[in-house]
Design a protein that fits this description.
3 strands, three-stranded antiparallel β-sheet, Dodecin subunit-like, about 70 residues
């Protein structure tokens, strides 16, 4: 029987929400083993001088507990 744990993280990118998701999962995998999935809970942007500065995602990363 597998037991999964969920870690909530926030990541951002100057390019896109997809890139922010990729960066978040890659960074989490540096310290967390056995990542199984990531759920994008929310998306937002930061705005500066009336223009989108960066894209942000709030991720729930699931990983198997050893």
């Amino acid at each position: 029987m597998a037991v999964l744990k969920v870690l909530e993280i926030m990541s951002d990118s100057n390019q896109s929400w997809e890139d922010a998701t990729r960066k978040g999962v890659e960074k989490a995998s540096e310290s967390v083993r056995n990542i199984r999935s990531a759920f994008v809970q929310s998306q937002s942007v930061t705005v500066e001088n009336g223009k989108v500065k960066s894209f942000r995602v709030n991720l729930k990363v699931s990983f198997e507990v050893e």
